[in-house]
Structure formats: structure tokens, C-alpha cells
Amino acid sequence: MTATTENRPWRGVLVATALPLKDDLSVNYDKFAEHCAWLVENGCDGVVPNGSLGEYQVLTPEERAKVVETAVAAIGGARVMPGVAAYGSAEARRWAEQARDAGCASVMLLPPNAYRADERSVLAHYEEVAKAGVPVVAYNNPIDTKVDLVPELLAKLYEEGHIHAVKEFSGDVRRAYQLAELAPGIDLLIGADDVLLELAVAGAKGWVAGYPNALPRASVELYRAAVNGDLDTAGKLYRQLHPLLRWDSKVEFVQAIKLSMDIVGRHGGPVRPPRVPLLPGQEAAVREATERAVAAGLA
């Protein structure tokens, strides 16, 4: 499948969906379907299930597949870009094939993360998964994976046809300009909520987002204003939301976003081990920032 200007389903605001769990820690598929639909109804362009925020690492294969199928049934496959990360390239390719067969129009892929892969391993990994025939968006998260998809490497992956875009989570906004020089055709996607404005100004074409799980309308307004150059609107919203957005780059991002969801009346629910609940001070900080956003009319 070849991506065209008209067919770039990773553009816009795609929410890395948190996965609602029941008290017994089983997946609440009904709540998840409702959540996906609610996000689109509130202005988001699509969802990214089975990312880190979706706790994919602690799902069974059956759960992981059903999460994708549930999202597609709720909002249509063109708006669903599942994470297909796995320790082995063959397994990641199988997840890409599962997403393709479920009707998804693109997938998101981390580099090899079982060990600190070198450049040849990274190229081979993306080449193998691209054989599934569904456009691949790379996910650069050197903090967690210890493998850094630097602009030069991303340009090689793009030139070889293995990827079409990158979710950039390094936090280094300077890379946006170098990547645009090395690979003008690649789409840069904002990967961390707390550098949204900086990367939007630098030419980002989308946002794989965390906090719209709780505050979709205000988050979408912020993104649209930022990419359209309305810096007065974007700057004000960014300052109001940044006390929450910065949690997306913290270790406890899943717990924080789920707590905010609960506060605004959505179903975040608990997390699966080895994640544990927030410490009292962390919970108080998230609660205060969320309630302040609600009071400001941002929920």
C-alpha cells in the first residue's frame, strides 16, 4: 500500500488511547469502544491503540487483537493506527498483518527494543514489518527503547520506503528542522504532549497524543491553532494545559492520564502491574491541574 498526499491517515490528532480496565483488571471493551467514538465525536481524527499508553506490553495476544478489532468496529479502520511493537521482527510483522486484515490504514512501530539495536538491525526490522503491506509510522522513543532514530537514520528508512512518518518523542525539537532537510517528504508527528507547540511551529503534520483522552476538545483546539499559526490562541491554551501535558513525558503518564479521565467523568480505571497507583503527592498534583482545567472550561 502506497501513501499519497490524499491518503495520509496519520495526519491530524490521533489519540494514543488509554485502555479502560475493570476492577478485576480485565479489559472493558464496551467502555473502550465508547471511548474511541467519543474522541472522534469531540474532534479527534483517530486513535492509536496498543501503544505504551494502552498498556500493550501486559496484554495477552487475544486481548491485543481484540483491542484493534474493537477500535475498528467503533470508528472505522481508516482512523485506527495500532502500535505493532514486539521483541522480534516476525512478531511485529504479524501484528501489522493483523491490523491490516482488521481494516487499519496504517500502523506505528518502535525500533527493536529487546536490546540496543545497531543501525543495520533497525533497517532490517522496519524492512521486515513493511512487508505486511500497510504504511508504517516509526516511533522514536530513545528514553524507553535505548535506540535513537536520529534524523539521518529516519531519512534512510524513508528513502528505502520502509516508513512514511515518525512519531518523535525524543523531546529534541531541533531535530524537526534537520529531518525536514534530510527527508522533505516524511511527515513529522508530535510524539510528546509537552513539546506540542514547538513541533507544530516546526512543521509537524500530526500529533500522536495522550491528554486528549481526558480533554479532547481543548487539545484539538490547541493543535489546530498551533499548526495554523494562531499563536495567540495556541500560546494561551498551551500555558493552561501544560501542567497536565508534561505528565505525558513522565514515567507515571498512564496513571496520570487515567486519573484525569476519571476526574472529567470518563472511565480511566486502574492499571495493570507492574504499574502501581500514583503516590499521594502525584495524585494531588494531577487532580489539582485537572480540576483547574475543568474550572477554566477546558473539559
TrEMBL record:
Transmembrane segments: none annotated. Pfam families: DHDPS. SUPFAM superfamilies: Aldolase (SSF51569). Keywords: Lyase. InterPro entries: Aldolase_TIM, DapA-like. Belongs to the DapA family. This is Dihydrodipicolinate synthase family protein. It comes from Streptomyces lutosisoli.
